[in-house]
Design brief:
Elements (H helix, E strand, L loop, with lengths): L4 H7 L4 E9 L3 E8 L4 E8 L1 H6 L2 H12 L11 E5 L2 E7 L6 H8 L4 H20 L12 E4 L2 E4 L4 H5 L4 H6 L12 H5 L6 H16 L9 H10 L5 H4 L5 H10 L11 H17 L2 E7 L3 E2 L7 H16 L5 E2 L2 H5 L8 H8 L1 E5 L2 E2 L2
Parallel strand pairs: 8-10, 8-11, 9-12
Antiparallel strand pairs: 1-2, 2-3, 3-5, 4-5, 6-7
Length: about 350
């Protein structure tokens, strides 16, 4: 439902100068505003009017205040919260870098190391919240903000504020608490949740940063539920071969259908992400090589067969050398035309040496 801007502007005129709408989600609309008393720009989130009538105001304000004051630099602090003239709102710092969602809309797939760094920073924030008994319940790119100092997580305590409300009334409003593409199977089922539901959601976000889409990206919540209940998570390396096997294993473990099969804590997930390269490096034999498809620099594209033929001959010849492990043609040729760092290719193919070349006729 649209927030009536003029009425909101008038209701908050003595405390905040509401300037413009900068975002909208399933539960709230975000406005850029000016904090008159403290003379600073802020992000002002106004709860959807239907939800505002469904939630116990005192509980809502108490929950977001508790969560907003968690002592961690990766958790966006809460400046203010209140209810006035029918508006239920809360105020946070304005992060000029915007949400991770905006970054993904512009790039789809992020640099692998950047994606891992963001996931580790979010896991650090979750670890702090979980240690205080707070589960986020709605980890998604929209709630991960990118500041100059790294990723910060917003909206802690929002979903928790609805946990004790009348579920049927909340459902009747047509507003879902949680986002289907990132919700864990147990959250769909309405089971009692623990911190591992956030680990699953973060796994979905990391999967999207690496591949360009969520693991079960369907148009309806019903289709998402069906796939999460029945289908295996699609392979990451099929879409992006440069992702190492060790990183894919970490993501798939976070996305395990059963909570007991996931990482036991967000801290454990962060540790696995940060130490994965050590594990990957140990899998690489010194006597190993990958031959990439040679680039055709001839003006005639019909001579592509010549560059491919040279690459294949090299692979076959090297494959006859005793003790030398050679990456398969299909694996090496998956990197044709992709601007990927050779070190990343070596990790992906478990090759200590990578050979590239070009052919001009």
């Amino acid at each position: 439902m649209t927030i009536p801007f003029e009425r909101l502007w008038q209701a908050l005129a003595e405390r905040y100068r509401v300037e413009e709408e900068i975002g909208q989600g399933g539960m709230a609309t975000v406005f850029r505003a000016w904090d008159i008393k403290n003379r600073r720009p802020v992000a002002l989130k106004v709860l959807d009017p239907q939800l505002a009538t469904a939630v116990a105001v005192e509980r809502f304000l108490r929950e977001i205040k508790t969560a907003g004051n968690l002592p961690h630099p990766r958790i966006l602090p809460l400046y203010d919260s209140d209810a006035t003239e029918g508006f239920l709102f809360y105020v946070m710092p304005l992060i000029e870098g915007g949400a991770l969602r905006r970054r993904l809309e512009g790039h789809r797939q992020l640099d692998i190391e950047e994606a891992v760094r963001i996931a580790c920073e979010v896991a650090d924030a979750l670890s702090c919240a979980h240690s205080h008994g707070i589960i986020h319940r709605d980890i998604k790119p929209d709630n991960i903000l990118l500041s100059s100092g790294g990723a910060v997580v917003s909206d802690f305590g929002i979903a928790r504020a609805f946990a004790a409300q009348d579920h049927e009334y909340i459902t009747a409003t047509g507003v879902q608490v949680g986002t289907p593409a990132y919700m864990s199977p147990e959250q769909f089922a309405g089971d009692v949740l623990d911190s591992r539901t956030d680990i699953y959601s973060l796994g979905c976000v990391l999967y999207e940063m690496l591949t360009g889409s969520a693991p079960f990206d369907e148009h309806s919540a019903t289709a998402v539920i069906a796939r999460k209940s029945n289908d295996a998570v699609p392979s990451i390396r099929t879409v992006r071969p440069a992702v190492s096997e060790s990183l894919e294993r970490v993501v798939l473990k976070a996305l395990s259908r059963t909570p007991a099969d996931r990482f036991a804590s967000a801290g454990e997930l962060a540790h696995a992400l940060r130490s994965r390269e050590t594990a990957a490096a140990s899998d690489v034999r010194a006597e190993s090589v990958a031959v990439l498809p040679f680039t055709n620099l001839s003006p005639d594209p019909d001579t592509e067969y010549l560059s491919d033929g040279i690459s294949e001959e090299l692979i076959n010849a090297l494959g006859r050398i005793p003790g030398l492990l050679v990456a398969a043609r299909t694996s090496s040729f998956a990197f044709r035309g992709k601007a990927v760092d050779l070190i990343a290719i070596g990790r992906a193919l478990k090759a200590a040496t990578v050979l590239e070349g070009s052919v001009r006729k």
